[in-house]
Amino acid sequence: MKKLIKHIGLAALALSLHSGAVLADEFLVGEDEPLTGALARVGMGMHEGISVAVEVFNQTNGKHTVKVLTEDNESSPAKAIAAVEKLASQGVVAFTGGYGSNNIGPASDAANKLGLPYITSGGVDNGLVQRGYKTFFRINNTAGYQKAMVGVLDDMKVKSASVIYSTKEATAHLAEDVEKDLTAKGMKVGMHPFDPGISDFKPIVNKVRLRDKSDVILMVGYENDYVGILRAAKVLKPDVKAMIGVWSLATPKMAADFPDLMPKVYGTALLPYPATFKTEEGKRFYDAYKKLYKKDPDYLGQFGYVQSMILFNAIARAADKGTIKSGGIAQELAATDANTLIGRVQFTNGDNLNFVHHMGQHQGDRIQIVWPKDAATADMQYPGVPW
Amino acid sequence: MTDLILQALYSGLLQGGSYALIALGLALVFGTTKVINLAHGELVLLAAYIAYTVESGLGVNPVLAIPAALVIVCISAVIMYFLVSMVKTDRELNSLILTYGLGVILTNAILLIWSADIRSTSSAWLQDAIVVGPLYSMRSEPMFFIVSVVLMGGLWWWLSRSWYGRAVRAVAGNRDAARLMGINPRRTELVSFVIAGILASFAGVAIFSYGVIQPSLGHVLTIKAFVITVLAGIGSIPGVLVGALLLGVAEALTVTLASSALQELVGMILFLLVLFVMPNGLFGRAGRRG
Question: Cβ distance A281 to A341 under 8 Å?
Fold first, then answer.
C-alpha cells in the first residue's frame, strides 16, 4: 500500500513538473496600445494585427506559445509609461504595439529602464532610434514613406509641389525631409504647416490655388486632415494634377466611407485592394485575419502582425537558447533577418533601413499599387483628381 | 492678394458662425447657473453622431436628424442638470470636476457605440460648392451660418421678452431675490440646460454636415466654446456672436497672411489680450460675476 502511495505521489509530482514546463513555455508579452482617445482607430487596427500574430504563432510554432496582455494608453504619453510599468509588473518579457512617436518615446524609455525590448511600427520620428537603446526596434521609418512620396513624384515628372502638413512631430519631420529631397532635385516646393486642431482647410488650399499654383498637393497628416483638405480642394478646385497623401489614406475604409473624395487620390499602401497574398505566410495571415475579424486586413493590421511575429520568433529563439532573462530577446531581435509581409526586415541600431513603402491609388472600387514599378499592380491614372 | 483676403474673411465669418453655435449653449448655462459645463462639447458631438446614424441608417439628409438629436441631447442635458444639482457645496468648482467626468463618460460611450472611425456626411447636396464671385464655400456652411444667427436672435428675444427668459436672467442676477419674486430657481436652471441641449443639437448636426467628427473631438469643442464665452463676456448673447466671428476671422487671416500653424496660437493670444485689457469680456458688464 505504501509502495502504491509512493508511486501515485511520484506520478503526481512528474505530472505537476510536466505541466509546469508547459506553462513556462507560454510567454507573456505586453501590448501598449492607444485603444481610446485620439489614436483609438489606428490603435485598434494595430491591435487586430497583434491578435492575428498571436493566433498564427501559437498554431504554427509547436514548441512555444505567447499570451498578450493589453493595456490601453488612452493616446497619452503619461498613460503609455504607466501601461508599460503595469505590464512589466505582471511579468511580460517584451512589448509590442504603440502608436504615435510622442507616446512611443516615453513608453520605450520606461521599457528600456526595465531592460525589456519594445518593438513597434507606429513611430516614425527619427529621434526614437537616435537614443541608442539596445532594447528599441521599429520595422518602419520616415525614410520609407519619404522614398515612396518622392519616388512617385519622380515618375510623374512634376516641377512644383505644395506640401500641406500637420505640425505634429512625425508628420512635420516627414514633410521637411520630403521638402529637402524635392528641393535638391530642383523642384519648387511650397510648405503649409497646419495646427492639428484646424477644421477649415479652405484658406490653405486657396493659398495653393492662387499663390503656389503647384502641379501636385502633398498631404502629410491623418485621416481627418485628409478629409478636410480634400473637401476644401473639392470646393476650391485648385489646378493640380494629383492629390498625394501618406498613411491611412489608400485604404478600403477610406474608399468606403468617403467615396466622393477618394477617386484617383494616392497614399502609401502595402497591399492592393482587394488584398492579394502570394506567399504562404501572407495567406496564413489573411485567413487568420478574416477568421478573427470577418473583414479584409488593412495596412495597420499588417504592420501589427509583422512586428509581433518578429518579436515572438525572437522570444522563441531566446527561449531555445535559455537567454530570456539575460537580454536574449533583444539580442535575437537585433540579429533578425526575415522576409516578411512588408519586405526584408533587419535592424541597424534598432531601425529597419530596408523599409520602403509602396504608393497606392484609389482607382474605381479598387486600390492599385502604382509605385514602385516592380510592385505595381496597375499604371497610375495621372493626371487625375477627385473633382 | 485681394482674393486671398476676401476668401479668408468669408471663411472666417462662416467658421465664426459655427463657433457661435457651439459656444452659445455653454455661454447660456455659464451665464445663468455659473456652472461651466465641461461636457458641452460632448453634447454637441453626441448630436453629430446621431446625425451620422440617421444618415447612414436611413439614407436621408443629416439635417433631418435634428428632431432625433433634440430628443436625445436634451434628455442627456436634463440628466446632466440633475447630476449637477446634486452638488451642494462649492458648486462652481465641484460642478467643474463633475462635468469633466461626464464628458469623459460621454466620450467613451460614443467610442463604444460608434467606434473610433472618423465620420462625415456623404450628402453631396450639403458639400456642393457655392461660388459667389471670388468666394467659395460648401452649401452647408452659409446654411448653418444663417441657422446660427436665427437661433441667436431667437435666444436673445426669448431671454429679453419672454417670462421664462426673464426668470432665467433674474436667477442669474440674484438667485435669492428671484426666489422671493416667486421664481423657482431649479426649474429655470433646468430650462437653461434644456435650451443648451437644443443649441447643441443644431451645432452637432452642423458640424457633421461640413466637418469631420471623431470621439475625441468633444473637449476641443468645449475649449473653443469656453474661449468664446470669455471673449464675449459672461451672459452676453450678442457678445457670443461677435466673439465667435472675431475668432473665426482672426484664425482665417492668420492662415492666409502668416501660417496655419499659428492659427490656434492667435486664438489664444486674442483670448489672453481680452482677459488682460477687458476682464469682463467684450460685452460683459462690470461687476457681473463669472
Answer: yes
What does the pLDDT look like over A362-374, one tens digit per residue?
A: 999 999 999 999 8
Phi, psi of B14, rounded to the nearest 5 degrees: -65, -40
pLDDT at A13: 47
Grid coordinates of B287 = 461687476
Q: Which of residues 4-63 of A touch B (CB under 8 A)?
A: 36-38, 40-41, 43-44
Is the predicted pLDDT of residue A378 greater than 50, yes or no?
Answer: yes
Choose among A195, A235, A253: nearest Cβ to B260.
A195
Boundaries of every domain in chain B: 2-277
C-alpha closest to that of B91 among B178, B167, B33: B33
**Domain B2-277 annotated CATH 1.10.3470:** yes
CA distance A240 to A217: 7
Residue B248 CB partners (closer than 8 Å, separation 6+): B11, B12, B13, B14, B15, B16, B17, B18, B19
Q: What per-residue string of b and e applies to A16-34 under the rule 16 or more CB within 10 Å gives b?
A: eeeeeeeeeeebebbbbbb
Look at the block and give the residue holding cell 436625445. Answer: B72
pLDDT above 50 for A383: yes
Give which of A214, A170, A210, A168 is closest to A193, Cα–Cα: A168
Looking at domain A8-141+278-346, its CATH class is alpha beta
What's domain A143-274+358-375's architecture? Answer: 3-Layer(aba) Sandwich (3.40)
Query: Which residues of chain A make contact with B14, given a CB cutoff of 8 A?
Result: 200
Beta strands in chain A (DSSP E): 26-33, 65-72, 95-97, 118-120, 136-138, 160-166, 188-194, 216-220, 242-244, 266-268, 337-340, 343-346, 359-363, 366-371
Rounded to two decimals, the ipTM of the complex is: 0.86
Q: Which of A33, A118, A125 is nearest to A310 (CA)?
A: A118
Report d(CA B27, CA B30) in Å as an integer: 5
- B133 and chain A: CB distance < 8 Å anywhere? no
Domain boundaries defined on chain A: 8-141+278-346, 143-274+358-375
Task: Tell me the C-alpha distance between B91 and A97, whole Å.
Answer: 42
**What three-state secondary structure class fits A122?**
coil
pTM over 0.90: no
Neighbours of A220 (CB within 10 A): 28
In DSSP terms, A346 is beta-bridged to A337
Torsion over CA: A120, A124, A125, A127 (sign)? positive
User: What is the Cα Rg of chain A in Å?
Assistant: 23
Q: How many CA atoms lie within 13 A of A56 on its CB side?
A: 27
Smallest CA–CA distance, residue A235 to chain B, in Å, is 5
The pLDDT value given to residue A10: 52
